[in-house]
């Protein structure tokens, strides 16, 4: 066979295989495109959620493309929400169009509803999606009203000071645990928001 | 048995080293036999005299791409277990420029420099030595470089996310681009004197 006809045959094979690929779309045997193993891996390696402190740093550092979504009902949202958050019920979240450049952080009261929305969004193919692990409760405890022990090693003190500074950035009140501190400013909010559903 | 074999535990660590050795020897053999150990041949690409490197690279890319896609589709390969390196936009752009400059100046890239060194070419030996010196230097200066090294992170960011198309369509487009590229490369080469001999 002549070299040119071999080359032409190979080129044709590549075009046919490529065109068929375009028709079937997904290189996965089940064809659904839902990558269950990858979701499980993200959960196991804890890449599915952020902590309240991480989220607070993202907000303070103005992380590009950050969108914070509150999936609770409007009364809860009006009562208290994380700065910069937008309210979007779960049924709208799963239909919303997000840009690939956006990082989505969802939160609910506790964490369960946001985690369920996370699974749906990841199954829909969104990549940069997280949920706030402990929900609003964690935000209030760790960012707005963190407990900072008084007797700390020097390294732990540096960490605690950075958490304290972060808290004050959001208008929070860090508490020295063993010193006499006046009633925390957010105690009322904590009591109100606490004990509500997921 | 479903590939990738090492990741799914079908190979032990020792066996995987043995497999890597066999694949490495085959890789080196074919690089040398296709003339890639010659800096003159590689440099010919930058003067638009000899586009063998481009053709070999893109042949490898579309062969591997179609292979991965269809092996995945037929359930032989679990595409979600394939490691996708993360993107750090600016450091990788700068790294690409340094790499390209080194490639054009020496006429060798990392793989071909090893092949050239193995065949006793002195330029190959000096490029390999320079490469290890660069790796060592980066390691020693890492604490100073870290801020830049980890800047503009995009996570695992792929063309399908950027263009928002299915993997199958992207495969087809890359096949067409490669084949058009081969045609253009042939035209450029026939206008010049023709491929550089080893």
Number of helices of chain B: 9
Total beta strand runs of chain A: 7
The general outline of chain B is globular
CATH topology of the largest domain in chain A: Oxidized Rhodanese, domain 1
- In whole angstroms, the N-to-C terminal distance of chain A is 70 Å
Q: Provide the CATH architecture of the largest domain in chain A.
A: 3-Layer(aba) Sandwich
CATH superfamily of the largest domain in chain A: Rhodanese-like domain
Q: How would you describe this structure to a colleague?
A:
The complex is a heterodimer of chains A (198) and B (198). Helix content of chain A is 48%, strand content 11%. By secondary structure, chain A is α/β, with parallel strands linked by helices. Chain A folds into two domains: 30 residues; 165 residues, Oxidized Rhodanese, domain 1, CATH 3.40.250. Chain A contains nine helices and seven strands, in the order ααβαβαβαβαβαβαβα. In chain A, helix 3 packs across helix 8. Chain B is an all-alpha fold. Chain B has nine helices and two strands; from the N terminus they run αααβααααβαα. In chain B, helix 1 crosses helix 5 and helix 5 packs across helix 6. Chain B is globular and about 45 Å long. The N and C termini of chain B lie far apart (43 Å). At the A-B interface, helix 1 of A face helix 3 and helix 9 of B.
